[in-house]
Write a structure and sequence with these properties.
5-stranded mixed beta sheet, Leu-rich_rpt, mainly beta, single chain, 11 strands, Leu-rich_rpt_typical-subtyp, LRR_dom_sf, Slit like 1 protein, globular, signal, 223 residues, 4-stranded parallel beta sheet
Length: 223
Amino acid sequence: MASYCLHRDLSENFIQSIPRKAFRGATDIKNLQLDKNHIACIEDGAFRALRGLEVLTLNNNNISSIPVSSFNHMPKLRTFRLHSNNLNCDCHLSWLAQWLRQRPTIGLFTQCTGPTELRGLNVAEVQKHEFACSGHQESSGPQPCSIGGGSCPAMCTCSNNIVDCRGKGLTAIPANLPDTMAEMFVDFLVVPSSCKVEYLVETDVIYEPNNQGAAVMGEQGDG
């Protein structure tokens, strides 16, 4: 698979979750954009490989909670954006307020959506005692992301864990793909100099443009 580019734009690609090993081997990425997706779940350690990251944007998603210390290993991070999400400011998110206060120039306009009494407040301005949980909520730890089983897209063919959507005139990767998928082929991608990548799936795979201009998805190496 082609070597990773420093700038990865994964915006507007129907991404629903960021699993723990999503960026395994992608240690050279400096700029990662994940805006305007459907991200609702981020697993513990999802960004752990990105120790050299300088820019991370997660605007306009459905993120309600983020595992503790998800960004602590990014000493070079200078731009961070998390606005327009569904952040539930309970006890599990109190760490984020402290993290943002320690970095007052990034994460601006990161706001609570719930609970009701904190709605619209900047997360960094909420005090530790205000991040409350019930007994059950407090004892629950981070859960793995679970997206539906998926199915073969109607316009594609599926065989031997391969989804083939070439020649179908697609303008976006279909959502809710099969969990058993090992490879996917599409031929609509136009990859600019910024190395925009079209999709990040919920399993341990990433789409890359191949030498013929088609996008080939396959297992990442350990790097």
